[in-house]
Amino acid sequence: MTGVAREPTAEEYARLQRMHAEVAEQLVAADSVLIALGRSSAEPDGVLDTVAESARRLCRCEGVQIYLLHGNDFELAASVGLSPEFRSYVAAHPPRRDREAMAGRVALDRRVQQISDVLSDPGYGRRDMQELGGYRTLIGAPLILDDEVVGAISLWRTKVEPFDDRATAMLEAFAAQAAAVVRNVHLVRALEARQVELARKVEQLQALNEVGETVSSTLVLDEVLFKIILNAVRFAECDGGSIMEYVEADRCFLARTTYPSSPELLSGLRTIKIELDQTLVGRAATQGRPIAISDIGQVERDVHLQLLYDDGWRSVLAVPVLRDSDGVATLKKFNVDQLPSFIILDKQGNVSGSAFGGIDPKFDITIPISKAVDRLL
Q1: Are 261 and 242 in contact (CB under 8 A)?
Q2: pTM of the model as a whole
């Protein structure tokens, strides 16, 4: 006997329609995130805003917060339904990775959690946030990337109305989407950093080629040294520099070339005696390593440092240069009698301990200037 399919009741038909609408809405939300990610892959804020808005709409809530974890503090990266006062307050008093706030709980337990009524939860410690937001029911999920918690997403309702299994499942999906946004941003920014590094290396190679062409095309040593210090200053991102020649008989250094320099400073550098035993330059030579001073005004100044200070310079780096057996300038331990010259890089204006943090020793110090060193010696 063949069975006859019965017509669904009006109630069943309405339920099927609601399910169909919800699935379609979920697909639209997922598509919106993908579109936003494709348009702004390196800037997470706009994409995370799309995730937050989709979560608010599909999970039927009034507020959504997406946090990124920095150390033990959560930074509010995207939100929907929050007042400007609430956002400003959270920025000044962020949730921490502890059990007082929902973001901290889900980060510690690495799973979805819900508080049906925060006013009835004795362990909920962020009543300050609750008073500003006016929420009662909270649910949250961690953002997990490569098995590491990188943030959290939290939803609230202003009435005591727990989220059902359907909303919980969608929240997990939104947490995965937000984590994917963070992953994509990390990848894009790493790629951009690599591209910047490669561009810098190309520029450095071009500069080295210029030095090589200068060495090959001129018998004037100072032209070669000027090209070297010009590129050293450029790639160290400082304001000026000089190359000094070590005169072994006098145990002192003489300025050979500078870039740029005021006439007064240049005249002073060529007249003072920068002794090996009594100056910063000499100390770097005897210790066999670069020495930096972030603020000349805060240290006892030798004759060289005083000259720089009087001319307005505030930060200095002394880098020893020597010639090895192959005639290549290198930076390593050496005897003073091996020392042909110094590169001095200076910085004006505001200074800090990281004033010369951009220097790449492999470029600025290990420069193949064998012909120039041969002539200098």
Answers
A1: yes
A2: 0.50
Q: Which domain holds residue 262?
A: 218-376
pLDDT of residue 32: 58
Instruction: Using the Cα atoms of residue 309, residue 313, residue 317 and residue 321 in order, give the sign of their dihedral.
Output: negative
Number of H helices, E strands in the chain: 12, 12
In the chain, how many domains are there? 2
pLDDT given at position 327: 38
Structural domain contains residue 199: no
Class of residue 235 by CB neighbours under 10 A (exposed 0-12, middle 13-18, buried 19+): middle
pLDDT below 70 — which residues of the chain? 1-8, 12-45, 185-193, 204-205, 207-208, 211-219, 236, 322-377
Provide the pLDDT for residue 332: 31
For 154, left (φ over 0), alpha (ψ -120 to 50), or beta?
beta
Instruction: For residue 44, tell me if it sits in a domain.
Output: yes
Nearest C-alpha neighbor of 319 from the set 264, 243, 261, 260 = 243
d(CA 132, CA 151): 22
pLDDT at 14: 65
List helix spans (H) across the chain: 10-39, 44-58, 84-92, 102-109, 127-133, 165-217, 221-236, 263-271, 280-287, 303-310, 361-364, 370-376
- Output the six-digit token pair for 75: 């930074």
